[in-house]
Amino acid sequence: MKPLNIGLIGYGFMGRAHSNAYRRVGHFFDLDHEPVLKAVCGRDKDQVGAFARQWGYESFETDWRKLVSRPDIELVDVACPNDMHKPIALAAAKAGKMILCEKPLAMNSLEGLQMTRAVEKAGVPNMVWYNYRRIPAVTLAHDLVAEGRLGRIFHYRAKFLQDWTISKDLPQGGAALWRLDAKVAGSGVTGDLLAHCIDTALWLNGGIDRVTAMTETFIKERKHNLTGKVQEVGIDDACAFLARFENGSLATFESTRYARGHKALYTFEINGEQASLCWDLHDLHRLQYFDHRDEGRLRGWRSIHVTDGDHPYMGKWWVPGLQIGYEHSFVHQVADFLDGLAKGKPTGPTFRDALQTQAVCDAVLRSARSSRWEPVRRY
Ligand code: SOE
Question: Is residue 176 scored above 90 in pLDDT?
Answer without folding.
Answer: no
